[in-house]
Amino acid sequence: MAAKRSFLQRLFRGFLLLMGLALVIPPVQVALTRKWNPSWSPMQIQRVFESGTASTRTPTRWVPLSEIPRPLIHYIWASEDQKFFAHHGFDFVALRKAIVTANTTGKEARGSSTITMQCARSVFLWQGRSWPRKILEAYYTLWMEILLSKQRILELYLNHIEFGPGLYGVGAAAESHFGKHLGSLTRRQMIALAAILPNPLEWSPAQPNATVQKKIRRIEGLSSRARFPEDELQ
What we know:
By secondary structure, this protein is mostly helical. It has helices at 2-32, 42-51, 70-80, 92-105, 115-123, 131-147, 150-160, 170-178, 187-195, 210-225; strands at 162-164, 167-168. The chain has a single domain (40-48, 60-233), classed as Biosynthetic peptidoglycan transglycosylase-like (Penicillin binding protein transpeptidase fold, Orthogonal Bundle), CATH 1.10.3810.
């Protein structure tokens, strides 16, 4: 009986230790990225295992936020999260709409993921729809909004989001998809990059299918109606 009690006590202490680490590690990781530009992420490692070869990953081409064309930022912001500079990581209005739509259609709730949330899973987590991943994503999002500026979150996001198999960040995307330096992209090419973000593993900005072309037209409309808050990047 005493041995069983001792085992349960050790098990409970181990559980508390794991919980403590789970609570402490995310803010430490987020704090480190205030100055450190990570070149790898768990998501990228996940993609390597999924592909079965390490050679499919394009080396990260880190581009400072100040060198990323403002129109490209505008198109991605207009398409992905126009409330980015106003919210604190979560768009509860969009979340509520997504839940209502899901209940009506019977499909999974989508369309409520903010830029900060997308950044959290691109830099610190993995891709998937499990509840543990979603809970961790929310926790990282909270700490990112507390410890990082909006400008830094945007910079991390634009350098880590997927733009194709083994392809991460706007710098690598410009070179791989169009054979150009980021600053040489045309307006149409920048909009096409923004258009493939919902499904970058299947869609191509260089050879847009009918779905991507439709999204390009949508982003053109969204960006023309929504003025980008340039002062937020100062």
